[in-house]
Amino acid sequence: MLEPLRQGLPPLDPAAVSDAASCALPARYEAVREARRFTRRTLDQWDMGEQFDDVCLVVSELVTNALRHGLPANDVCVSGREPPVRLHLMRWTERLVCAVRDPSHDSPVTRETDDFSAESGRGLFLVDSFSDGWGWHPLAGALNGKVVWALFRLPRNGSRPHGE
Fold first, then answer.
1. CB neighbours of 86 closer than 8 A, spacing ≥ 6?
2. Which regions of 95-160 does DSSP assign to beta strands (E)?
3. What would the pLDDT profile of 111-124 be if each residue is shown by its tens digit?
4. Digit-coded pLDDT (tens) for 56-109
């Protein structure tokens, strides 16, 4: 999982990962709420509760996109089969990566829109606005689908993140 995530990201030493957590999410829209709860618990455990608002918004958008665009039509969770969407949170000393895996090979598409009151179509715009970078890559090997990730720079020893 980690090797492909390094493609397109600033250099990240896998040995320097401070913490990592992941959860499987079922193919239903309630999974977005489950992803927010998981993110809250994880960030609280990592003593990063102050990052929750931005990270939660991005996680919500990535999971929603995975459910809406990354699943085959009429996909249902079959008992005994792993849920099709998975959320990963990985923390380094100065970076946090949120990654969402889904079974689709289709690339995420940002929509150009001037209608900022629209209820859909702005997810990746929000991800881009609230994170320090995002991208995606197809999975290789036994894993099928893709991962869409967002990167957050973390403050160093009490200093404020870049741009604040």
1. 22, 23, 24, 25, 100, 101
2. 95-102, 133-138, 146-153
3. 665 555 545 556 88
4. 999 999 999 999 988 876 554 444 456 789 999 999 888 999 999 999 988 887
pTM value surpassing 0.70: yes
Q: Which two tokens stand for residue 24?
A: 């499987």
Rg of the Cα atoms in the chain: 16
CB contact set of 120 (below 8 Å; sequence gap of 6+): none
Where would I find the beta strands (DSSP E) of 26-106? 85-91, 95-102
In the numeric block, which tokens belong to residue 162?
Answer: 């870049």
Give the Cβ contact number of residue 55 at 10 Å.
Answer: 22
